[in-house]
Specification:
single chain, alpha+beta, two-stranded antiparallel ribbon, 12 helices, 12 strands, 37% helix, globular, binds zinc ion, HTH_HxlR
């Protein structure tokens, strides 16, 4: 079996588990109350075969459990709720939709419509990726990960269904492994083609393709740093930096659930404004409380009835 060797990263480990586009779509639906095979089939637009395959995978990694014909979230997948909220926040900010496709988020505890914000647990300031420093953690090493034999569908962006899908663009970007990896490396200041290529076991034409895709999406901006031959640096735009909270929640989840060798986090983050090790929670911007899945109602304009994450199977 072939293996993929990369710098140990909780983001990569998390993406190995749930970073496939269909898995992201299925979990998204589960967070908004989807729980039956038929419901998930209609909402995700997956074929029966693909849906069965991904549901089996998600059960195998203990992110879903099946009980009385319904799929339930688990403690592990509920812990991705912060990630889902930050995905929603990014998409809302950068891809406004028509009123009939819009939705509202309401926090039951304070009764307000809200926006989710990632805040530092120590100083309570919103987390900005530009003010975060990195140092190797106890689990710093290189990961050898078997290349999954699981069939990956190459789902074009246009095929990601729009119905009830509140982070379509993000699923398109993050659901592609190399694209997600390039963004994660850009947070560390990596900007040049050769440096991306040194970190990623990826074919050069694929890397070129992904850099162009991220440039087209407005996540990276290319700037020439050399004239002959012409060479570019790819820097995150503010839209790109706005993805940091999503990745930060994913990293936190990976630290917690994907530390397979038990050595601890591969990387430690320090929050610039307070100087403390960065631990963060997603909070309601109205009352400041941390957000729990069962306290959040999501209401689609055309449906009127609020949906909320289903019961979880402990
Ligand atoms: Zn802080
Ligand atoms: Zn609130």
């Amino acid at each position: 079996m072939s293996v993929l060797v990369t710098r140990a990263s909780s983001i990569n480990r998390a993406l190995d588990e749930i970073g496939d586009r269909w898995c992201l779509l299925i979990l998204q639906e589960a967070f908004w109350g989807g729980s039956t095979f038929g419901g998930l089939l209609a909402a995700t637009g997956a074929s029966r075969g693909v849906l069965s395959d991904r549901l089996k995978w998600l059960r195998g990694i203990d992110c879903l459990r099946q009980r009385h014909g319904r799929y339930r979230l688990t403690r592990k997948s509920l812990d991705l709720y912060d990630t889902a909220l930050m995905a929603v926040a990014w998409e809302r900010c950068h891809y406004p939709v028509a009123p009939q496709q819009d939705f509202t988020l309401r926090h039951r505890r304070c009764g307000q419509r809200f926006s989710p914000v990632l805040a530092c647990e120590a100083c309570e300031l919103p987390v900005d990726g530009r003010a975060v420093a990195y140092e190797p953690g106890p689990g710093a090493a290189r990961d050898e990960r078997p290349v999954k034999t699981r069939r990956r569908s190459s789902l074009p962006a246009s095929a990601v269904p729009a119905a009830r899908n509140v982070y379509r663009q993000l699923v398109t970007l993050v659901g592609d492994r190399w694209t997600a990896n390039v963004i994660a490396l850009a947070f560390h200041g990596i900007a040049r083609f050769d440096d991306f290529h040194r970190e990623l076991p990826v074919a050069t034409n694929t890397l070129t393709d992904r850099l162009r895709l991220l440039e087209d999406a407005g996540v990276l901006a290319a700037q020439a740093y050399q004239r002959r031959p012409r060479r570019f640096e790819y820097r995150l735009t503010s839209k790109g930096w706005d993805l940091f909270p999503f990745f930060q929640t994913l990293l936190h989840w990976g630290d917690r659930w994907c530390d397979l060798n038990g050595k601890g986090p591969p990387m430690l983050l320090r929050h610039g404004p307070c100087g403390e090790r960065l631990r963060s929670r997603v909070r309601c911007d109205q009352c400041g409380d941390p957000l729990e899945a069962h306290d959040v109602e999501l209401t689609f304009a055309e449906e009127r009835e609020p949906t909320t994450a289903g019961d979880y199977a402990s």
